[in-house]
UniProtKB/TrEMBL annotation:
UniProt name for this protein: Rpn family recombination-promoting nuclease/putative transposase
Start and end residues of each Transposase (putative) YhgA-like domain: 7-208
InterPro entries: Rpn/YhgA-like_nuclease, RpnA, Transposase_31
Pfam family, one: Transposase_31
Superkingdom, natural source: Bacteria
Family membership noted in the UniProt record: Belongs to the Rpn/YhgA-like nuclease family.
Amino acid sequence: MATAGTTPHDAVFKQFLMHPDAARDFLDIHLPAEIRAICDLTTLRLESGNFVEENLREHYSDILYSVKMQGEPGYLHVLIEHQSTPSKKITFRMVRYAIAAMHRHLEAGFEKLPLVVPILFYQGKASPYPYSMRWLDLFASPELAKRLYSEPFPLVDITVIPDDQIMQHRRVAVLELLQKHIRQRDLMQMLEDLVTLLNTEYTTENQLITLVNYMLLLGHTDQETLFFRELAKRLSKEKKLGSLGQWFEDQGMEKGIQKGIQEGEDAARQRVALRMLKNGMSVELVAEMTELPPEAIAKMADER
C-alpha cells in the first residue's frame, strides 16, 4: 500500500505481501487459529494508506489488508520491523496503528468499529524476538490495565446524580450542579443552592468569575438582572473577593443585558468573551465557551 522502504529487507517482503495470493498464504499459515477461523481469506483486498509515523519509517513499514470476518468488515495489519535492535514498545505502536485504521474506517461512513488484527513480522539480528507481544505488559500493573481496558469505562453521568448528593461533592459541587441544570432550569430556582456552594471555602476568585461568565453566557432566567444582583448581594464578604457587586456594576450588567437583546446574540457573546479575557481566561477556553471563532477571540485579546 506504500512505496518500498529504505532497506532491502523491507522492499522484498512488501513486494511479496502486496500480492493477494502470497498474502493469503502468509496469513493462512501465520494467523492465530481463532482469528483464522473467522476470516474469509477469499475476500482479502489490499488497502491504501500508511499508519507508520514518518520518523519511524526507516525502522518499520506496514501493509493493510481488508477482509471479511464473520461477514463483517475487518482488517489485517502487518507491521514489518526491519531494524537490528527490537523495540520494547512496539506493541504500543501496534495498538496506535490499529486505532488509526479503525478511525479511517469510521471516517468512511461505517457505524461499527472493525476488528483490526495487528501482526508483527520480525527478521532482526536478535533471535528469538525478546519482548512480550502483549501490549498490556507495558503497564506497571498489567492486570489492572487488563481490567480497565476490557470493562466499561468509568462514567460520571451528572444528569442522574441527585442534587443533594452533588451538594456534598466539595470543590466540584457547584460546577456539577450548574452543568447538570444549565440547559433546563431557571437560574432563579438554583439561587439558594448556588449561594450555599459559592460561600464555601472551596471556590476561588477565578472560579467564581468563570462560573458567573458561564451563567451569563448559557444560563437562562426571566429575572436575569434580579438573579445576578441577588447572587452578588448574598455572597459572603470573604467570597466577594474585591467586591463582586462592584464587578457587576463595572460590567454594566443592566445596560449590557438590554444592549445584548438589541444587538443580537453574537454581540452579546463578544461582550462576554471580552469580560472573560479581562479576567485572565485563555483564548482557547473563551472560544470554546462562547463558540466564537478562535481567531476572533485572539484578535480581541490583542486589541485589549
